[in-house]
Write a structure and sequence with these properties.
single chain, 564 residues, alpha/beta, Rossmann fold, Alpha-Beta Plaits, 8-stranded mixed β-barrel, binds ligand C2E, binds magnesium ion
Amino acid sequence: MDILIVDDDIVDREHIKRTLRKTNHNWTFVETESVDEGLVAFASKNFDVILLDYRMPKRDGIELILELRNISLVRNVAIVMLSNSEESALALDCIKAGAQDFLLKSEVTSSRLERAILQSQTRFELEQKLYRSYQEAKKLAEHDSLTGLANRYSFEEALRLSITQKPRDKSKLALALFDLDNFKNINDTHGHDIGDELLKSVSKRVCLCLRENELFARLGGDEFAIILSNLRTVDNATRVNKRILACLEKPFIISGIEIIMSASIGIAIYPDNSLGANELLKYADIAMYRAKKLGRNQICFFEEDMQQQFLQRYQIEANLVGAAERNEFVLHYQPVFDTVSKDLLGFEALIRWNFQGRLHFPDSFISIAECSHVIIDIGRWVIENAIRQLSQWNRHKDKALSMSINLSVIQLTDKALVGFIKTMMQKYDVAPQLIELELTETALLENSDQAVEVMELLSNIGCRIALDDFGTGFSSVSHLQNFPIDTVKIDKSLMLVCHEAKTLALIKGLAAMLHSLGLEIVAEGIEDENSFTLCQELNIQRSQGYYLSKPIDSDAIEKRFLSS
Ligand code: C2E
Ligand code: MG
Ligand code: MG
């Protein structure tokens, strides 16, 4: 066993050597007289144990321990302190500094010293094990196990630290949050293993776009974050993030599957947007949300008005919950007429929301209700009330009127929807042929398998199905053939400019095509006599628009159209 003795007293050194030679071990000794010499000796050779005197003239033993522990924790060396001082505090100080044992020189016997050396070695090994497992636990606590990147916890710590330690120069810090677009689809289509591999590949690619001192973290799921510090201008942040979007452009090949992936990035800037870490995170999140809304694969910087809009949206979302029970919704009805006879055929139910003292139109809340899925409850409220109203209006009529009800694509995910509609028609004794359910083409695109299934079920129970807003989206003929559609509603945006030659030609073409497919046509947005005449000329069976009547509440409908 190789022993380094560091002691300024030659008599003590000789005593130690003599004592140890009495034991059965094979010792080799290197002796030094001071801390500095000891450090030099330690650097040139591996020792198993250092026997270290506490009191030496220039620097004491504890200083040597501190220097050694700073240089290398990995080199295996146990330290036994030797001293003449009986002070118990001193022994504790030595152990705290990193010695494994402490012996009084007066008590040194061969067996004691031998035991101290051997026990110190074991203790040292245990300490090392503990240290390594601490390091591992720390890594687990601070890193994301899938990608090896920093996790949310250490990211937030790092963000806080970089803000508090920021020099008072003019440099800026950018916090970029990014989220993979439609990542859920990858998991749903290819399974979680492929999803996980994709996340790993994405993080590897993005790492290549960053410098070593730029912190890159996975916050969870498909959400990542980057801190770019010491930026001279905001443009630097744009450049880095553009690089990130570009590096994701090349398709990923995971287990032989080609995957196209993009990301939406939101950026908040310190100190421009905020001086606080939490607020920066919130703002970057809002900007990311905006980037997604702008059509994904985008970079979006936080702007003051976003916060305002975000709050407003949040308020709407929160207040929509339970709004039906609080009777805040009302239905307005827009009459639909036979284009030739001008007879009233029925109505389209259009929802309004009484909120904060005024009536809100669906464009301001339906998409929010869709995101949070409250649309399912709201939709049921609409269905029940529209059917109940129709039943009441038809009670004294010879010729029954119809009711068109708008359905959101989210409602098609409600497995109980068809049953609910059926129950409502039975409850209010309304024939299914009088109920027309309106769906937009984008709804069909987004969820086509499920949509076809639900539409077929609805069609089978006898309801009519209308394709709403036709002429604005894809207007695909295949949709008209593949879905059980009875009626197509030509969108108001076309009818409003039907005097323009190009649009006129388009409407004529559409009408001819729809007729040839045997579909019934409704024109919406009839605002003047000219467009109404056009509908008559083109054999468009039903008409709806401000020229004929705006959507109005049930009292007004009764007064204007049902009083006779
Ligand atoms: P939509 O189904 O295409 O309804 C027609 C919209 O055009 C209505 O707007 C109506 O007020 C408006 N409109 C009718 N005639 C004219 C006209 O001559 N000129 C102009 N410029 N506009 C006209 P509204 O009530 O604001 O509804 C907007 C959209 O909100 C509806 O479009 C529909 O997609 C959706 N929506 C309305 N009620 C509901 C509902 O209960 N559930 C769901 N999921 N969506 C609804
Ligand atoms: Mg509609
Ligand atoms: Mg429409």
